[in-house]
Specification:
Blueprint (H helix, E strand, L loop, with lengths): L1 E3 L8 H19 L4 H24 L7 H13 L2 H15 L5 E10 L8 E5 L5 H7 L5 H9 L1 E10 L7 H22 L6 E3 L6 E2 L19 E5 L17 H15 L13 H19 L4 E7 L2 E8 L4 H18 L3 E12 L16 E10 L5 E10 L2 E4 L3 E4 L7 H6 L18 E4 L1
Antiparallel strand pairs: 1-5, 2-3, 2-4, 4-7, 5-6, 8-9, 8-10, 10-11, 10-15, 11-12, 12-13, 12-14
Helix pairs in contact: 1-2, 1-7, 2-4, 2-7
Length: 443
């Protein structure tokens, strides 16, 4: 990723360069995560350079109209953020007292649902056997059996600074970068200049900073490179393949006639003209019904949206139940990276009445299970919507019942998205048909 500016025309180019230097040193620290000395040098350089952004900005105050009043507002805003106060103190400590007191830790947690509710520990990195103690703490109960069958032990290495014990060090500096990026953007706007933009140097896609707090997409989700996921059931590493494909314009055009010939669907009308996420869900579900009625099945797919427009399409192929927990977390990080503010998932699901005697039994294992074609839409700012049609099978024959629309609820599978959007998770399904209270559903 790159923060773009025109050095030949922008009066604030020196400030833009300082911000880009912070980005550069941050990636140096990321690459040196498992090399203590190199990591120390790079992360401290990033912290020191971050402080220079505001210094250089103040030296150029004559360029910015109404600087004193404008900057006073930003000073008060940044001073109210504990992390930014820590950045100032950290820089002073580096320059006046010596190195930060950073230590490497291993954190371990058990993931057995879409919610971040599992037990977790954090220990010095040299205590590599500590995760075993976490596994031994799993209760011998129905909950414990569920965890041991479908749960994943997630082990991460983390750098922590003594005076900032609850925040991973790279993430702290990335977040601080975001606040400074917003300050620099505001300075450009105060001068009536075109603000710098974030550009993916590989794809050319441009991003706004609002939904990521000013951070570049490459500064989000960096924990994946230092994470090991292990199946609790087997002790083997959890692995799933991520295949990315960019569909060119000519390829996309070529797919249109194929889609229309097989399903009678015009690709140009698959999305709603209104751009509203609920309308998109209804329109896409109508297309999904046609595809199912032709093929007798439907893949599980997720579409991410930004400002009412689709920006990312993905197919999910979980081989194990635990894969779903990790895939949705990966999807949430992708949404955060690209600033997605809504998502629609379409696919087949199982549904069954809850069994109080076996609360952790999956719907697919229930003798009373039913199949549904479903579409769920969730968004950062609006209410969710859930569309379903029961799948009726008779030997090789298949059909769909009428579509039923539910509002004001959300599947817990979307909890990771709600987390990155800082949005409370609904604890109910909302307006469900009579008799569906207490059902369990799974994709």
């Amino acid at each position: 990723m790159a923060w773009d500016h025109d050095e030949n025309q922008c009066p604030l180019a020196a400030i833009d360069r300082r911000l880009e230097d912070v980005h550069h040193f941050w990636h140096q620290a990321e690459r040196a995560y498992f090399e203590p000395d190199e990591f120390r040098v790079a992360i401290q350089a990033a912290i020191q350079t971050a402080r220079q952004v505001s210094f250089v900005l103040q030296k150029n105050k004559a360029l910015i109209p109404d600087f004193e009043e404008w900057y006073k507002g930003w000073q008060e805003k940044l001073a109210a953020i504990p992390l930014m106060r820590w950045m100032v103190e950290a820089r002073n400590k580096i320059e006046k007292q010596g190195d930060l007191e950073a230590h490497s830790f291993v954190s371990a947690e058990i993931v057995a649902s879409h919610l971040d509710e599992g037990p977790r520990i954090q220990v010095p990195a040299k205590l590599s056997d500590a995760p075993l103690a976490l596994i031994k703490s799993i209760p011998d109960s129905l909950l414990g059996q569920h965890i041991k069958k479908d749960g994943v032990l997630r082990i991460r290495r983390r750098w922590i600074e003594n005076s900032l014990p609850d925040t991973e060090l790279l993430d702290a500096v990335a977040t601080a970068y975001g606040h400074l990026a917003q300050l620099v953007r505001s300075a450009h706007e105060q001068m009536g200049l075109v603000a710098p933009i974030s550009t993916n140097v590989n794809t050319g896609e441009q991003f706004s900073e609002g939904d990521r707090g000013g951070r570049l997409p490459c500064m989000i989700g960096h924990e994946d490179a230092r994470t090991l996921d292990v199946w609790l059931a087997t002790g083997e590493p959890l692995e799933f393949e991520v295949i990315q494909k960019k569909l060119g314009r000519e390829e996309a055009i070529a797919e249109g006639p194929k889609l229309e010939k097989r399903y009678g669907i015009n690709p140009s009308t698959m999305y709603a003209d209104s751009g509203k996420i609920h309308d998109h869900a209804r329109s896409l579900f109508r297309s999904a019904r046609r595809m199912f009625e032709k093929d007798g099945y439907h893949i599980t797919m997720v579409i991410l949206f930004r400002d009412g427009k689709p920006i990312h399409f993905g197919e999910l192929r979980p081989m194990e139940h635990g894969h779903k927990f990790m895939m949705m977390r990966t999807l949430a990080r992708q949404a955060q990276k690209i600033g997605a503010d809504a998502a629609i998932m379409i696919g087949e699901t199982w549904s069954a009445p809850a069994n109080p005697a076996n609360p952790y039994m999956r719907a697919v294992d229930s003798p009373d299970r039913k199949e549904f074609l479903t579409a769920t839409a969730v968004s950062k700012d609006g209410d969710p919507i859930y569309l379903s049609a029961e799948i009726l099978r008779d030997g090789k024959k298949f059909a769909l019942a009428d579509t039923i629309e539910h509002t004001n609820g959300a599947h817990f599978a979307f909890a990771p998205l709600y987390e990155v959007w800082k949005k409370p998770i609904p604890n109910h399904w909302g307006e469900l048909p009579k008799g569906t209270d207490g059902v369990r559903k799974e994709v």
